[in-house]
């Protein structure tokens, strides 16, 4: 098929995605440490999984970087894109304001991810 890379023994394939899911969780956990508790890690893992899928599809075997290095870059990028997409303040600056705004009270209670509400 046109546009689809053939899989070699060394080239990661989409079938390898479950093998890298713990890596996605690790990257998401590192990003989550710098965010307010209202940000749901499960949502970041979902976004990171999309980044993993893109990395698996776009990684070039002859690259100087290892697949893990390349995938980490793509996973972090997908997570950051997701955070920007849901950023309540759409300005170029104001990092501290973003953190305050993200942890603001919603309906008299702290904003909590749906996964945390079930616990």
Descriptive overview:
This protein has 119 residues and is mainly alpha-helical. The protein has a single domain (14-117), classed as Orthogonal Bundle (Rna Polymerase Sigma Factor, Chain: A), CATH 1.10.1740.10. The protein has helices at residues 17-32, 41-58, 67-85, 95-102, 114-117; strands at residues 105-106, 109-110. The chain has a two-stranded antiparallel sheet with strand order 1-2. Strand 1 and strand 2 form a beta hairpin. The longest helix has 19 residues, at 67-85. It starts with 16 loop residues before the first helix and ends with a helix. The model is unreliable at 1-9 and 105-109 (pLDDT under 50).
Topology overview:
Blueprint (H helix, E strand, L loop, with lengths): L16 H16 L8 H18 L8 H19 L9 H8 L2 E2 L2 E2 L3 H4 L2
Helix pairs in contact: 1-2, 1-3, 2-3
Number of strands: 2
SSE ordering: HHHHEEH
Largest sheet: 2 strands, antiparallel
Cα(first) to Cα(last) distance is 46 Å
Shape: elongated
Strand order in the sheet with the most strands: 1-2
How many whole angstroms does the radius of gyration measure? 17 Å
**How helical, in percent, are the residues?**
40-55%
Helical stretch tally:
5
CATH architecture: Orthogonal Bundle
The CATH superfamily is: RNA polymerase sigma factor, region 2, helix turn helix motif
Highlighted features:
119 residues, mainly alpha, Rna Polymerase Sigma Factor, Chain: A, two-stranded antiparallel sheet, 5 helices, elongated, disordered N terminus
